[in-house]
Amino acid sequence: MAKYRATLNMEYIKDAAKGFQWGVEKAAELGYRYVEPMVHTGWDLLSEVDFFHSFSMEEDPLLMKEICDRAGVRVSGISGHSPLMKPEAAVPRLTRAIVFADACGAKFVNTDDMIKPDWMDDETAWQMMRYTLTKARFVAERHEVNVCIEPHGTFSCTSEGLLRIADLAPSPWINVNFDTGNFYLAALEDLYEGLDRVKDRVVHMHAKDISEQHSADERGLVTGTPVGCALGEGMVDWERVFEVLEPLDREIFLSVECGRVDEAERSLEFLRKTLGDKLIE
Fold it and tell me: Model-level pTM?
């Protein structure tokens, strides 16, 4: 029987225009015990002045851990999205995120394929992704950190495409981060049937709900979105989601991806009510 841990993707403070430390402390105040930070390379002006939550990998990873430890939360995983079809960017970024995650005690780094450029044919795209993931695989295996492929791009928003990407560099450390909102919005395959087909590879989930208006505006037109609404207030049938995952004999992190503090608060309340003692706190 599947068990769950709730974590909070730091995108939840994007609307508040606050920095990383503020977001970690607020997550703890709301009752979360884990967070999923976003990382970037180089230096970002908005992050440096605490107007944005992303954390630079130029900093010491133990500084991230120290900030979280002080607030009483842990880093569950890293949002290290790196365009797999663009190895010149993805290889250094993704491998660095894996090392960063390990230093923080996290076991997941989430990434995706990206949108295929017009000039790139499919064969080239698959070759580029194979190269990127093969390079990442060696680092992931050394550090025992899962590289999790997320539905968010040209090939990853069907169960077949998602599994094909995850199998490009066969390894027990390359798995799936299933994003319910992205898969729903892409509308290339039934959400619950698709989840059922990939469930054996799901080790992490972006728990993202999609409002009725958001669905009407973008469903079938996009392959993903940064954030959704509060869980239980949108189009995703969470009872069906958890029914699909029920047979899995492992813990799965549910990383809440919403856009506001109040939505994060209501999402945790929803998970507690819906999952009961299946939610480990």
Answer: 0.96
